[in-house]
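Fold this complex.
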Amino acid sequence: MDETMIQALDVALGLALSLMVYSYLLGDNPLYRIAVHVLVGVGMGYASVVVIYTVLIPQVITPVEQLLLGGTVGIGQPVLLIAMVLVLTILLLLKLSPHTAPWGNLTMGFVMGVGAAVAVSGAVLGTLLPQVSATALSLRPDSQVLVSPGQDGVTNLLAGVVLVAGTITSLLYFHFSAQRMQDETTQRPSWIRLSAQVGQVFLMITFGSLFAGALIASLSVLTARVQFYLDWLSQWFVG
Amino acid sequence: MAARCPNCGNLNSEGSKFCSSCGHGLGLPTKGQCPECGTLNSPSNIFCDKCGARLFPARSEMDAKGDESPVRGLSLPSKEPSEDDVPDWLDQLRSSFGEPEGEGVSPDEPGPAPSGDEMPDWLRAAGLSGGSGAASSGSDLDDLPDWLPDEATDADAPTLVPSGDDIEPGELPDWLQQLRPREAARDEGAPGPTPSPVSSDEAEPADLPDWLQRMRPQDESVPEEVEPVVSPPREVDALDSTDLPDWLRSIQPEEEARVEGPPVPVPPPREVGALDSADLPAWLRSIEPEEEAPDQEAAELTPAPAGEAAGPSDLPDWLRNMGPEEEAPDQEAAEPTPVPAGGAAGPSDLPDWLREIQAPEEAPDEEAAEPTPVPAGEAAGPSDLPDWLRAIQSKEEALEAELAEGAPGVLPKEPEPSVPTLASDELEDWLEGMQDQERAAPDLEAPADEEMAEMGELPAWLQEFALVGDESDMPGLAPAAPLILDGEGPEAEPTPEQRPAKAPRLPSPAEVSALEDWLGETAQPVEEKAAPTKALGGTGPLVPPELPEWLAAVSESAEDELPGWLAQEEETDTLLKPDTGELKPPPVAPLPSWLTDEDAGVPVTREEIAELPTQPEAGLAPAELPDWLRMPPAAGRPGTGELAGRAAFLADLDAIDMAAAPAAGVDIEAAEIERLGLVQAEIPDWLQALRPQEVRERPPPVEEVEELEPVEMGGFLDGVRGALKARSEVSIIPTRQVLLKFAPTEQQRAHAQVLEQIVHAGPSPVPDVAQIRRPKAWLERLVIPILLLAAILLPAWMGNPLQGFVGEEVGSQQVIDTYNLLELELSSDSVVAVVAFDYTPAEAAELNPVSAVFMRHMMDRGAKILAVSTAPTGPELAQGVLEESAGDRVYGDDYLNLGYIPGGAAGLQAFANNPWSLFSGTDYPGRFETGRTAPAAAGLGDSLADVDILLILTADRDDLIGWVEQVGRLEEMQKVEIVAGTSASLEPWAQPYFLSRIDGVVSGIPGAAQYEQRLDPHESAQLTDSALYLRDSQLLGLGVSVILITVGLLWGIGYGLVSRRRRDG
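Structure:
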């Protein structure tokens, strides 16, 4: 089978699967489910193979093999570290059986603990502090944060004010603490309620942007798929 | 109240239906429901806790109901009867005897007193006749019983007792009418009625046992006619031992020891007579001299001197003196009772009709020896007699023959003590002496028989008690004083027609039932009968050690409280016969002829009594004994004989031939019930439940109740059927008082009103949503995609229709800045860029154009590209993009696909710190043994900071933030230009990091198209797969989408407005 036939079969299979997915427009049907199952199955199978070939073999099997064969483990891979990785991996495999699953908790604990610690530290140092700093700096007229071509300092300052106001008011919108009034009603302070309403506007704009982005992304996928098939068909028929 | 489990004894909480420990059923809670308010009361309650209403019918109510369904034996002897509690029959009796109905003869109301002609001698001798009553003081009147003050105050008043003429013959029952001729036929020699020893009249009520207190008014009023059938010892048995005086308790065991035989009453006065003289009341001791002077009338009128069974040391002097008197053949003093009639009362002391009765008994021995109450062929022939009566008759005949051998002329009716049959060592000393004397000196008038001599030792009234019981124990016959007062003396001899009228009138059904009860009690075992006989003879152990408290209390104040008539006796000594100085014969309150007449069936002699049917239980007072208590509960006691005796007696009374009933197997009990008009429900349930187990198991009387009443399953009444009207608490509907008062607020009322409106409004017509939405679904699922496809495909066929509306460069400054940044960075040599392809095949359609413009730009500028991916599918996508964008670039030399970075955030941090620690193996395509050995990887050292550009291509927010937080935050990474190529949906999430940690952002196809225009505007416009080409299609599709959204929004707003207008009106 030449490459052209393989490519033609690839395009035909892709077209069939795409139509099967788009058949969902007519309602839930087996074609759609088959396409979804194929997508998920192929994706997971492909991921497993990738993990085996790009992680397990080069990171575990090859060093152990080299160690057993008397060779070097590898650059920067001490034997103890290899042994620990190997043990943790074996323990994780014990999760396959309910009887031995508790033994895998050690590996899971190690992975989750390390991952949580890394994520928290990255969130604080990579998101929270930079965001606060960027927001504060945006109020400076000479700030380069919101520098745009053709905009003067006033515009940048106004943009910075809007940025800060939007950030603060959006945070105040989630301030739900309230106090009991004389008429036995509970409500937030007036200034918080006002700020929350402003923050609600910012939130609506943000959600609208997210929806627009999602819509554009979907249309982009559709457009790319349609364009792909148009190109293939044009090449197939036009030559 | 906590309920204790009958199974395990666990104490359960109140209201528990099952045991919390073992699960055993605790049974239905027994509660008594108040008939007034319905409150459930404790079973021990008599009155309602809440309203105070009586939970059970009072005795008076029961008695009143007795008219409809005669109740036999309703109440326990726990309450002293009041005037209101007097049953109808008693009121009738009282009224028939001249007493106003429902009330006794008050001492303040001078009732008609018997005239001197009507008064018997003993009454006149007692000073009650003539003007002697004037001597009575007012205080004396207070001390007198109800029936006495009238006589004491106004003896001249006419008698309270209506004469026999007042009674219409038609009112008399047949049996009385049948007896009357026989009484008339037996003129002479009839034994006079037994006088009533006024024994306990003066006792303090508080000291009396309940049954005595209850009977005390009866004692005051009941004449002696009904004595023979009363058995006080049985009543004693029914009492609590603590309520009994000692002298009665001493009797009780002996009573219980008897097994068979008809009951023989042991009247309390006889027991009293056995007391020590020191225990006697003063007023009784004051009579002793009179007793010493053998005035038998005084001895009979007072109960205290009646005791002669005590030992010599215990006897008062006047009693001890009676012994020698017995030796002297003073038969009148020794035998004052009318029953022996052998000279006890002189002919002059007896009314004519009594003498008429007495005479025939004295004359022929055969006739006198016939103690059987069989009427001599007038009322019922021998064949009509029941067996037990025939047995009595035969025994009496045997006694007659026996007496005839010893002493002819012995009155067979005289009570025959069993002393002669006793061994001498069984007798008290003084009785032995008396016995010897009696044997040695037979009476002239009385027969010389030893038995009769022994009888002569006793006062006549005591001899009477030896045979008969105290009439006070006869609840069915408790006539008031008139019965005594109507006793006509010799001066007022009644005519034969009057005699039956003077006797108690025919009892009502209730009375008959009561009579039946106490008569039934006479059916005691033979042994029971023998006991009082021994006591009478003084040979038995019946020697009460002390006086009862009530009698002792009386003795202390006897002097002051002595009835007027007795006080007058002391003064005038009228009780003594003027000629002999002896006591006059006892007051001959006439027994009803049907009782005194031996032919009438009343057993008189001991043999007769011995032949009476057995009385199984001597528990309660007769009137208070239900049938089941009178039935023989214990095995071995022939209940049939008892029933037969009573049935025969009743049959004799009503002239109903029931004698053959037992032999015929007839249910006499049922016959009795039917004849008396009784119904089974006469016994209340609560009393029915108290029946013994063996009696309850008897099917006939209990059957109906068992069907109606359930068996108690727990508590003290476990196993008892129908103890109380029990019902399950579950079925009890709480009364309104129990419910909490609910005061709804206005808001609650409004809510309730709304709910009511909703409930009553019913379902409103709902439009068929499916019908309406069906076109919408069709539009949504077909029309909209078609429109979008048309918009997307339009540029392919018609070119870019928006080309004239938009400028050359469509995009944002952000993309321009990013392009400029990269253009500046790529301007240098040996630029190494690490590109992270962190997107999946599903996102490739959008991100591949973005990736492609970046790859062309960097490859065009000669940068070394090292592709990595945090997604497993990323390396494959990266490989495709790199190969498409490489052009003439060589893999390994210009670009390298290192592959997958595992570990998420930790993997990113590790990759940032030491990239080759993760890629120690081959590259992703596997073209190099190790990726680091590839020429393209030469610029990447042991740190990621060695690279110049870090391009992040992702459509996932976490991937983008992961790269920024784990890699971009590193200080050493500050010199690395970090650019993000994201999807259009991820752009808002990338904006916060823009210019802080991300130096440039290109998002989506529009951004890629703008970047592509910057990169090579002319070339990109010629490519069909370029981002610029896709942008046009996307813009058309986006425009259609916006139009559809706008139309949909306007349609929704319009539909809402129209719907509101329609709804409003």
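Chain B has a mean pLDDT of 61.
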